[in-house]
Amino acid sequence: MADSDYMAGRIRDLARNAYLNDYITHTDFLSASEQAAFYTALRKLGVPPLVDRVEGAQYLLCGGFDEAERQAVVFLPSWLDAETYKAQEEDDPQVITCLQISPAAAKFADALSHRDYLGALMNLGITRGQVGDILIDREDSSAYVFVFRDMADFICSELSRVRHTTVIPRMVPPSSCTVRPEFEIREGSVASPRLDAVLSFVCRLARGKAQELIDREAVTVDGQTALSGAHELKEGSRVSVRGFGKFVFVGSRGTTKKGRSYIEVKIYK
User: Fold this and answer.
1) Could you tell me which of 172, 163, 218 has the C-alpha nearest to residue 196?
2) What is the pLDDT of residues 126-161, one digit of tens each?
3) Contact at 8 Å (CB) between 89 and 95?
């Protein structure tokens, strides 16, 4: 789905169906790179920046909660606007719902990870695009899994084990999920908000070593491979560094007396 030509055709079809037939349509859950391909596809379709309509249908990206990394593009019918849709989805979801998957006997459960839950779902024949974010509750190794509503009943009836642990899935309103990705907040000064400078700060590397990561194509920004250390990060940019993890560039918080940028980042734990 990351190919922008295919994406453009798919987006056009979904938007037209929503507009002409007056019902909700949506893509699969998209990774960061697929979301980047979606915005490239919008440009191919001639959709101006900041316009939230394609082929007459309003669209929005959502993943079940505000900070979701994997998100679907949802196209709305004429009788539903984005704010009403989001309010309805919180407690009575029609597109994206949440499954709470808990060990039947927490005392004897394995320490289950994101990979364990994802693997168990894939073993049911579910594709990656049908599963959104998976959030692990570290207290009891249970998980909140965001999926499309039309897959939820199937998963609840078929999923009984994750690794060697018997589990019980149940559908809950997305608003009941209080688990969120954990971050380390870090602030400090850099020469500028250029990618190489911020990487050096976050990964605690010399500037040259940070540039080597970029040269090896080990760094992505908002799903796209970074090609230059001179790229200036924007507020909210999501950066992934192979071997070091992921972080969000929150933004610049002013300048120091020496003219350096004072920045804030959120580093995924």
Assistant:
1) 218
2) 999 999 999 999 888 899 999 999 999 999 999 999
3) yes
The token duo for 28 is 């699969």
Compute the distance between CA of residue 115 and CA of residue 103 in angstroms, rounded to an integer. Answer: 16
Name residue 146's beta-bridge partners. 98
Q: How far apart are CA 201 and CA 204, in angstroms?
A: 5
Tokens matching residue 231 = 């790229």
Phi, psi of 112 (to 5 degrees): -85, 140
Residues 247, 205, 227: CA angle, nearest 5 degrees = 65
Q: How far apart are the C-alpha atoms of 269 and 267, rounded to whole Å? A: 6
Which residues contact residue 87 at a Cβ distance below 8 angstroms, ignoring those fewer than 6 apart? none
Global confidence as pTM: 0.80
User: Structural domains in the chain?
Assistant: 4-91 (no CATH), 96-176 (3.30.70.330), 183-268 (3.10.290.10)
